[in-house]
Amino acid sequence: xxxxxxxxxxxxITIEIRLAECSDAPELKxxxxxxxxxxxxxxxxIERSLFKNDAEIVCVAACGDELAGFCCGQFQASMxxxxxxxVITEFFIRxxxxxxxxxxxxxxxxxxxxxxxGVKHFHLSTGGDNAAALALYRSSGYDVxxxxxxxxxx
Length: 154
Prior knowledge:
Oligomer: single chain
Number of domains: 1
Radius of gyration: 16 Å
Largest sheet: 6 strands, mixed
Structural class: alpha+beta
């Protein structure tokens, strides 16, 4: 999917929303370092994951050679449910691409990729103080339904 939003300065740019490719690994590493802190993963490991991780879909928003953002989701199944669902696990847009429709289109594209594969239900989590993300998710049809807790193994 290609669209042409205007930047805050009024400049028209071209954004392509698509599935990530192995060649995106260096740019994905840069974005992941910004989002999750440096050195959580290597370019080689990201490339391998993109190549062989069938449980995950990674979508990107590309502006020329730069990635504007990424969205990762994973297939989930449980003996408790008769259906498979997807969990949007990571979602990041570079700040200079905020308020241009990039996030909304990237999230929708990711959902559509899962729907093509038979998924009909989505989960995602975000920080409770992330007002911009909460507004995007709510306007995209997500409801707050639970509280997520986490801890590291001792």
